[in-house]
Design goal:
Two copies of one chain form a homodimer. Chain A is an alpha/beta fold and 357 residues long. Helices cover 27% and strands 24% of the residues of chain A. The first copy, chain A, is globular and about 60 Å long. Strand 14 of chain A pairs antiparallel with strand 14 of chain B.
């Protein structure tokens, strides 16, 4: 197959993204061609586009790494995948190196991230390695009333906090604090709750707090309206009132801002776990020794190993994680407008760009 | 028994420590009286004494938490311990609370640290809970040519990095970088090597580097003579030359200084583990998001659970960790002079204060 396709290219920092026609190449032995159903717009894309964070692949490049779609062509080793609905992992490990063989695909040195190492998902089609593809059961999907495009957000916004929650070892009765309940943090809160944690949500936006309060958070706090000390005392009082531990909190930092990271670090207590989920180029000023004094830890995770995608998908299909109410779909052709709106903070839900086929 | 005893009291920041006679009280049911063989002088003691770091117990207080000695009296539930040689854990968990029951003694809210929560080891005698005492086989000790006083350093200088190495999961073939090879870091290097790591030592003192180079470090680097970038390149070249991994380094930060912590954080690479072993009140400026970008982690540990003391002691008794060549003994009566010398950086080995009985 050599379908005619369109991808939107970034040519330079802040330059309008431009549509480019291309012929999808014949996939290699271990590759597939995917007709894209949807691709989520992530904070990371904005980092490349507005802040000049460098992509590994030189410009021009198609951004976008939250991809779902249908396999429309395959290489000779990947024929099993033809016509299947899939989610493409945001980080595709090579599957064969020393790190991959030890189950550490997220630190694979040969990994491919669409929209960073290879052309990404703001396109009608994409060619990707077959490694790590996550199949979607379309019958269950239809029964759940979810569209395939909605599932694109699983590739980062859902699985990245999923991996964080798994790494932190959240279990029933834990107190989990999610700092920043936007596109990623909203899922972090739902996942932590699905793992049995009582969830405290912190944000600076009352609308987002109200939304997550309805969904799963037992306590919501606006960080604009109280200082760190008061936040900590409020959560401590809540923990006591609920009979939860007054230490060993799990803090999921999802704001990806300097202030947010400093707040999250300041919430550390004995035996606490800080998960650094959000990203910012900014440095922070923290007393690192508090990790020692509290016997605490700070864990980072770069995406999520593909092996965990089916578990995260299952939570979506069985309704423990809601995606549709946190997503809004826009035509791919409106990408420049949507980027601006996301950057300006005008959207309350995660934008998913949907191509017209 | 009500032996007459002496303990050296801290009455205020920088005030001369003063000897005070006291009668050792009858031990409670679950307590023992220990005739102290030696007590190590730790960076933490100097923090209380020179920098005004607050002790949990109000002043006047006897400092010192690295204690070895003989049990000379016991409560009714602790009679098994009479006459035994022991190491007192630097952090004594209560053994009964929720955290202790889950094996997390270092975050026990009722823990007692000698020289912080209760009177410490710069004394002829001390009364401590029996919980967590580590017995020493005096026959093996004599056969190894080690004195009981030397073993005092196990209670912090050895077991704290021991716990860090266990937490980091160091295993054969790992590359471990020890930043600061003084009183604690020297043991960190030996323990990492005993667990099979190839050890790179970083310090600002050539004498300490030479000593650890003879002992166990395969590469020694003086951080005064090269910037962070060069340090990283040098270690990378070394790793390549040795056929070791170019990622997943374990960095044991033992300097307990702002500059040292920033250097250690700067050495993070993919899948790396930073162990925060040294303590400083200073804040540091770091890009916390690198934990996310590198899928790395920073682990702190407050001392070491008593359950691990026998393993650490075993490494000393079987010669894998040398203590005698890293220790110098001084009479307890010279405590004020020794504190000054340690504070001025005049001693190359860890000072252990030995009372005259």
């Amino acid at each position: 197959m050599a379908a005619e396709a369109i991808r939107w290219m970034m040519t330079g920092k802040g330059e309008p993204l431009v549509p480019v026609r291309f012929e999808t190449p014949s996939p290699g032995q271990n590759e597939v061609v995917i007709e894209i159903a949807g691709c989520g717009v992530c904070h990371t894309d904005l980092g490349y586009y507005y802040d000049g964070v460098r992509t590994n692949h030189e410009l021009p490049l198609t951004l976008g790494h939250e991809i779902s779609g249908h396999v429309v062509d395959t290489g000779s080793n990947a024929m099993w995948w033809i016509d299947r609905a899939v989610i493409v992992p945001a980080v595709i490990p090579c599957g064969h190196c020393d790190a991959c063989r030890r189950g550490k695909g997220t630190i694979c040195a040969n990994q491919k991230m669409p929209g960073n190492d290879i052309h990404g998902g703001f396109a009608t089609h994409i060619v990707v390695p077959v490694q790590g593809l996550c199949e979607v059961d379309t019958h269950r999907l239809a029964a759940a009333g979810i569209e395939l495009a909605d599932l694109s957000v699983i590739a980062d916004a859902v699985t990245t906090p999923y991996q964080a929650v798994v790494q932190a070892g959240i279990s029933p009765g834990d107190l989990a604090i999610v700092n920043g309940v936007g596109g990623v943090g909203g899922y972090a809160a739902q996942i932590a709750a699905a793992f049995g944690a009582v969830v405290v949500a912190i944000d600076v936006n009352d609308d987002k707090l109200a939304a997550i309060g309805k969904q799963c958070a037992a306590l919501t706090l606006n960080a604009r309206k109280m200082n760190l000390r008061d936040l900590k005392m409020e959560i401590l009082g809540f923990a006591k009132g609920r009979g939860l531990r007054e230490s060993e909190w799990v803090i999921l930092e999802c704001s990806g801002t300097r202030v947010g990271q400093e707040t999250a670090f300041g919430l550390l207590n004995r035996g606490a776990t800080l998960c650094v989920v959000g990203f910012t180029m900014d440095k922070v000023e923290v007393r690192l020794s508090n990790l020692m004094a509290f016997h605490a830890r700070a864990l980072g995770n770069w995406g999520c190993p593909p092996e965990l995608y089916p578990q995260a998908l299952e939570l979506v299909l069985n309704g423990r994680i809601k995606v549709t109410s946190f997503v809004e779909k826009h035509p791919l052709a409106e990408i420049n407008h949507v980027f601006e709106a996301v950057h300006a903070g005008e959207l309350k839900r995660r934008a998913v760009l949907v191509p017209t086929h």
